[in-house]
Design brief:
Layout lengths: L1 H28 L18 H22 L8 H8 L17 H8 L25 E3 L6 E3 L9
Length: 156
């Protein structure tokens, strides 16, 4: 009886030792999506644990600098995060970071939060040729600006 109990404990410890690295690898994979710029990079703008813990503070500070002081192109700007972390589908089109299993949704869905960022900001990178993080883009031929509706919103 006693040896059976010891055997079960050893088996549990062995399985935990084998499964823990696999589970960690699965957890890591949801933070960087395949076919994104980030997948080919060695590091983010800061260490991963720091970004996970403090990204909201970084983004709010960046937002204040941009909105109040007019400073753009900051290290922790939302548009830079999206540009790097948005994945591409098989046709090369950017996939929304709020789509199921994508960069923002993977974590925010897991912790059941709904950030308000994307009520105004675009969820895909601005394509070269003009645009900004608020979803405005210009037609290269006519230079007419149009608003790209954020995910989940309809035009009137």
């Amino acid at each position: 009886m006693r040896s059976s109990l010891i055997s079960k404990r050893l088996l549990i410890i062995l399985l935990a030792g084998l499964l823990l690295p696999a589970m960690q690898a699965i957890g890591e994979s949801r933070y960087v999506t395949k076919n994104s710029k980030a997948a080919s990079l060695d590091s983010c703008v800061a260490p991963t644990d720091e970004i996970r813990r403090n990204h909201m503070d970084f983004l709010q500070h960046s937002r204040d600098d941009t909105v109040i002081d007019g400073i753009r192109g900051l290290k922790y700007s939302l548009s830079e995060c999206i540009d790097c972390h948005a994945s591409r589908d098989s046709s090369g089109q950017a996939v929304s970071v709020t789509s199921e299993g994508e960069f923002c949704q993977a974590c925010h869905g897991y912790v059941a939060v709904s950030p308000a960022c994307f009520q105004c900001h675009r969820t895909t990178p601005a394509e070269s040729g003009g645009g900004d993080s608020l979803g405005y883009h210009s037609d290269a031929q006519t230079h007419v600006w149009d608003v790209q509706q954020p995910a989940g919103r309809q035009r009137d």
